[in-house]
Amino acid sequence: xxxxxxxxxxxxxxxxxxxxxxxxxxxxxxxxxxxxxxxxxxxxxxxxxxxxxxxxxxxxxxxxxxxxxxxxxxxxxxxxxxxxxxxxxxxxxxxxxxxxxxxxxxxxxxxxxxxxxxxxxxxxxxxxxxxxxxxxxxxxxxxxxxxxxxxxxxxxxxxxxxxxxxxxxxxxxxxxxxxxxxxxxxxxxxxxxxxxxxxxxxxxxxxxxxxxxxxxxxxxxxxxxxxxxxxxxxxxxxxxxxxxxxxxxxxxxxxxxxxxxxxxxxxxxxxxxxxxxxxxxxxxxxxxxxxxxxxxxxxxxxxxxxxxxxxxxxxxxxxxxxxxxxxxxxxxxxxxxxxxxxxxxxxxxxxxxxxxxxxxxxxxxxxxxxxxxxxxxxxxxxxxxxxxxxxxxxxxxxxxxxxxxxxxxxxxxxxxxxxxxxxxxxxxxxxxxxxxxxxxxxxxxxxxxxx
Length: 451
Ligand code: TRP
Prior knowledge:
Layout: H1 11-22, H2 25-37, H3 41-69, H4 73-80, H5 86-118, H6 125-131, H7 135-153, H8 158-183, H9 188-196, H10 206-223, H11 230-235, H12 244-272, H13 283-292, H14 298-331, H15 336-358, E1 365-366, E2 369-370, H16 371-408, H17 419-449
Antiparallel strand pairs: 1-2
Helix pairs in contact: 1-8, 1-12, 1-14, 2-10, 2-12, 3-4, 3-9, 3-10, 3-12, 3-16, 3-17, 4-5, 5-7, 5-14, 5-15, 5-16, 7-14, 7-15, 8-12, 8-14, 9-12, 10-16, 10-17, 13-14, 14-15, 15-16, 16-17
The chain binds tryptophan (TRP).
């Protein structure tokens, strides 16, 4: 195994690429809807606590492992300890699960881009009738996957890095504008209140609370692209003079700001138009067209906005596809092109069932979840936390805090004031939290299967 020689061209380029992977449908589509189904502000508060307790230390560990070893996720972990390569292997399985639902949603976004040209009054039933069709959503998912395949097969080159450097700031500007508009809608204050002021009646029982906690943990992993080797890989392209701790804080801050802005863009509109916050994964697709339809020139804004959403999704999904493709390339004789094509086709096949389970054939179920929900559950709540747990153990016990801190501080060159906190979190808090939450949710998932 050769060490990777590629490097990010600049600190800014790295931050943009890492933030580009983190910022995606997880922030724009998932965060607002999970906030809606998980009781609002209580969820947001738990989410932020987990960002600090789990998100930051695990992200920092992944970057440190990657930069220390300078190789792909599996080999980097194996360099720390020959038996620990498996800790990097979660990415390959998890990325497949994420992609099987991510590309369905990516397809919806493409459909909305096209639709915003042709149909000015997409009403809120449009999402239901569209997503319940069998053929169309699969077609648009195929287009989304094709775009992914084309980019990844030619290597995640400079191109996409440059593109996201331009589009990410544009997305932020658009989102802020939409947020400001949403906040001026009648009854917007109800949405803000739902988002920011905890309503403890939403947490009537311990099991309500556990499900909020579990959702928040899954969302932290999903939104920051954790537990699946993405950041190990990105860290392996980092030069030694990068200050890992401050990069981590920047990436987490950017990701969180975008999530909060999109919550404040979507939830006030939900309340203003009388939609249900508990609506689920259709929330963004129902609410935003209603917002755009009230603005003069809304069609153009809608088109531009959904194009930006598509790019945010693509910069994340290619990082997922890349995890699988790079592994296939180094473990089979397939060329990069063939690896990309075959992996894309496999995701497409899983995606077909995932897409159909959303509406056309609701009987495609595992336990009490549609296949689409199951793929989400499996990746966010099983694979990523397990991957994260092993990263904690690898860093905190196998590699050792002292070695990790050496890498983080570049042998003492950078200050790392949070060293003690980092050590405590990676060794005790994070693994304990993940293990407890994980076990209790696994039980609550498995029990109903035997009823
Ligand atoms: N973080 C991305 C989002 O919020 C999704 C994503 C990209 C991801 N790469 C990942 C999630 C790796 C988990 C692991 O949309």
